[in-house]
User: What shape does this take?
Amino acid sequence: MKRIIQKKVCLLGDFAVGKTSLTRKFVEGRFDDRYLSTIGIKISRKRLEMDTYTLNLLIWDLVGGANFSKSSAKHLHGAIAALIVCDLTRPETLDGYKFYAEQMRAVNPNAALIFAGNKSDLVDERLISDEKLQIISKQLNGSYLDTSAKTGFQVETAFHWMAEQIEI
Assistant: This one.
């Protein structure tokens, strides 16, 4: 019988980048295009079967943007990894990568960081290049990939990358 391990991870990023939609797609397998802003924290759970153990991910979807404050930062305690999200159609959301990475690393210097450029399905509206995202992610010592909560593109991959980098 595999041992069961529970770990806390956080979704970070500015408002309306798709954190809640990514979580919903990963946990529930569905997408809802109605925008509902997260107020505070939404906690979800997903079980992943790894090679030698079962990982229960506690996914903390934290409010972002101007509403992320010192009180929000306290919710990072105990987190072992973060998925930091930007909106590929809004270049200003890329500024959040460094801010949220610094917030996470201040609490856990060894946290695994995955950077997601979300809304990759909006090809004609995309304003941030893969090259730019790769450079920033490398500077911040994390991995990068494009995602789409709407189509499901690489949503599973993003969470599995995060899970694989968690030290057990």
